Amino acid sequence: MTSPIRDPERLTRRLPAVEERSAGGIVVDVHEGEARIAVIARRNRAGRVEWCLPKGHLENGETLPQAAAREVAEETGIQGRVLTELGTIDYWFATSDRRVHKYVHHYLLEATGGRLTIENDPDHEAIDVAWLPLRQAHEHLTFPNERRIARQAWARLSGDG
Predict the structure, then answer these.
(1) pLDDT (tens digit per residue) in 76-88
(2) What secondary structure letter does DSSP report for 113?
(3) Of 23, 82, 105, 152, which is most buried, counting CB atoms within 10 Å of its CB?
(4) Alpha-carbon Rg of the chain, whole angstroms?
(5) Are 141 and 51 a contacting pair, CB within 8 Å?
(6) Which of 13, 91, 75, 68 is nearest to 41 (CA)?
(7) CA–CA separation, 25 vs 67, rounded Å?
(8) Burial (CB count <10 Å: 0-12, 13-18, 19+), residue 142
C-alpha cells in the first residue's frame, strides 16, 4: 500500500491555496471612567454563539486602517478613529474548492460617535453587539487570538505596552 503522503495522485488533488486579508479592531469608549469595547456575537457553522471583534474584507482600494474603521462602524454602529495597529492574526481554513490563508489586521480605535446596533451590518452576520469592560474583555471573547489582541489593547492604554 502506498503511503498517503507519497501518493502522487493525492498530491495533485490538493486544493489550491489563496491568501485573504481582512481588517477590524477594538473600538474603545470611556464610560463613567472605565474603558469599554464594542464586541459582536455571531453564530458559527454549528449554531453556537461566538463573541468576537468586528472585522471584515477590504473593499475597493481601501487601506487596512480604512477597512478596520468601516467594518467596526458597520458591525457595531460605533464610528471610530484609528489610533494604532495592535497586531495581526493569521489562520488557515478550507472551502469546497480552496485552502485560505487568512490574515486579519487589528487596530485600536477611539470611539467618535454612533450607537450600538447591528442594523448596518451588510452581511447580517452579527446577531448581537455589546459593550464590554476592556480590562475584562479577554474573559468573554471566544477566540484565544482575539483575547490576545484585547490584552494588547489594554496594555497599550494602561501604559504597559
Answers:
(1) 999 999 999 999 9
(2) E
(3) 23
(4) 18
(5) yes
(6) 75
(7) 10
(8) middle
